[in-house]
Structure prediction request, 104 residues.
Amino acid sequence: MKSLATMKYSGIGVDISNLSVYFCGYLLGYLKGSKHIPKPFVKNSDSNFLLFGYYEDNYFIYGYDNHDEYEIEKSKLEEVIAALNTTAKELTYQDPISSSTATA
Prediction:
């Protein structure tokens, strides 16, 4: 895994890869600056092996050189974040009829 600051591409597709890294970084910087606190999420760019999102009160962007490592980490993050969002939804569900908090 590489940090955003050290990610440089070479070869075919250099421009689009660098644009993808720049765009993801710009978007995450904008969201961080807006003070918006979203539900945890992960998004990806399969063609560039990039994962970015929000998890554990931090915005992140990860880049990978190896497709297998990228797919493993992508699966792990998607699973963890889906579990967090499901748990949070169950804990905050309100029954619209009785106006009492319940689990789904």
In short: The helical segments are 14-33, 67-92. The chain has a mean pLDDT of 77. The chain has one domain: 4-92.
